[in-house]
Write a structure and sequence with these properties.
Number of domains of chain A: 2
Number of strands of chain A: 0
Number of helices of chain B: 8
Order of helices and strands of chain B: EEEHEEEHHHEHEHEEHHEEEEEEEEEE
Strand content of chain A: under 5%
Shape of chain B: elongated
Shape of chain A: globular
Bound molecules: adenosine-5'-triphosphate, magnesium ion
Helix content of chain A: over 70%
CATH topology of the largest domain in chain B: Rossmann fold
Strand content of chain B: 35-45%
Helix content of chain B: 10-25%
Oligomer: heterodimer
Number of strands of chain B: 20
Mean pLDDT of chain B: 92
CATH superfamily of the largest domain in chain B: P-loop containing nucleotide triphosphate hydrolases
CATH architecture of the largest domain in chain B: 3-Layer(aba) Sandwich
CATH topology of the largest domain in chain A: MetI-like fold
Chain lengths: 280, 345
Amino acid sequence: MSDVTIPGPRREEVNRAGRFLFGAGIALLVLWVLVPIWFLFVNALSAPSEVTGFPKRFWPSFDLASVRFFWNFQGVTNALWNSIKVAVLTMILSIGMGAPAGYALSRFDFPGKEFFRVLVIMTRAFPLPLLALPLAVMFIRTGLDDTVLGLALVHAMLALPFAVLITFSLFSGIPVELEEAAWTLGCTRLQAFVKVVLPLALPGIAASAVFAFVISWNEVFAAAVLTIENRTLTAFLLQSLNVSPLPLKFAGGAALVLPALIFIFAVRKYLFAMWGIANR
Amino acid sequence: MAEIVIKGVAKQFGAFTALHSVDLTIADQEFMVLLGASGCGKTTLLRIIAGLEAPSQGEVWIGGRRVDHLPPRARGIAMVFQNYAVFPHLTVFENIAFGLRMANMPQAEVERRVTRTAELMHIGQLLKRYSGELSGGQRQRVAVARALAMEPDVILMDEPLSNLDALLRLEMRAELKGVLAQSKTTTIYVTHDQVEAMSLADRISVMNGGYIVQADRPTEVYRNPAARFVGSFIGNPPMNFLPASPDGAGRWRVAGRVFDGPHAEAAEFAIRPEDLQAASDGLNAEVRVVEPLGPHTLITAEVAGQPFRAVLESDRQVAPGDVITLAPVPDRIRWFDPETHKAIA
Ligand SMILES: Nc1ncnc2c1ncn2[C@@H]1O[C@H](COP(=O)(O)OP(=O)(O)OP(=O)(O)O)[C@@H](O)[C@H]1O
Ligand SMILES: [Mg+2]
């Protein structure tokens, strides 16, 4: 080894610069997500007079006037109730169809399996605006327009790929030997599923149900196009956007975001699993 | 009574043939070991017997009943899996009780059987634990206890000890042998460990490339291999083979020496390394490697250009480069057909 030192940044300097960039990038991303949410909640929980004021206080004044106004606004409770009904139905439909599909994909070899997997994802390739008009026409013909079931069907279609993929990775993570052991111990295929697979998969299935709920809860386009009387909260807020006062919008926005945030936080582990990222 | 009869069982996975027409009869209460190298079809055969895999052809009979169309639960079998397959969401007690509950056994009987088998497998103090709180060896015991609690006619085990460390393996091996001998079940035990096979089996079925090459008592398999493969697979170090050329009727010239042999067209000479004695008259071997093993010394040499091993008394001084004379024990010499690789009587 020679004693010649190469001029230029030393290793620890490079490392420090890298760490700084990394940290800055993360901070930027976090702010990107958190600032709008903070903004939303500060305004929703402030008095209507404060909403238009600037600068903002970091902590809201916890004046519930906006929220009360939102709650008493004509049609809000009805829309909220519709949102819940559609979301619950979406949850049931997408898990009811998605979990068996996920199980089949993880346990059986059948011709066209890969094609089916692509197809499941492909359902997300058609933009909803493209589908909305023909769907609306078809729904009017069949009488499904402006019904909770009709909208839930569309939302279930949106949530289904995720339900299939999450439950697929879930079932794949449960060793086949456990099921086979149950068969040799006297179980039918169904009994083994109920007694062994289901208890192990249940938390994950619940998570993907919650995810389906959130997808429906936040969906606005189909809801706006396919319903008139029975609007969900998103569609209702969109419709009354230009006529409603600012505090209502913020309170409504917060009402939309809050359940989604809580649910996503609760099931984050399983969403990571879906993308193949190990949780820690 | 649970005699197992396998008639012409074959299994194809697509174009690949994992089992070629296997015929095998396993007597009631017999301990049969399926032994063979990795990928030879042991697990496939076991899974076909268990009903976890359907045979492409052939029949499986258990206790005089044809079962190849029946699901696993209707076959009177219990299975121990290589990775144990202990249910993680149930306690040890409920794991062992699982099959009994499926059979709607009264609670008192369930408790009696679970306690008894748990005692037998020395896991009585673990009954409240979950599998995540057990060591590999303990999980293994739970898996065996769960199978035994069923009091099945047949127990199938797929390399049950392969995930344990060497010491625990030795201990479990002896224990399994004792427990299974008492339980009066017919046992089929898959392993690729020949020592395990020798020590446990009533009979060993040596498998190779989807065929059963030989099914016989351990000493018989060891002493009288039915095929060249058996001799080269079983025994550590394995059998030595040397080419032989005819030298008159029933006489064969091997490495320049003449031996009495079979009346055949062609033959290959075979001898186990421990059946060689250092003598003044025998095969000339040029020593390559000397490995003292304590009681014996393992010598790797060259005879007529072929690698050749011998196990000698350790008091004999040998060094690499020496030329020694090794005399085969006459009644331990075996002959194989160089074409079919089958033994010539
Ligand atoms: N489901 C399957 N699809 C295709 N090929 C398979 C399947 N199961 C087994 N095989 C093939 O059949 C052959 C026998 O497999 P098997 O599992 O019976 O081997 P084994 O003797 O148990 O080996 P090991 O000692 O490694 O467990 C292997 O070559 C394997 O690749
Ligand atoms: Mg195997």
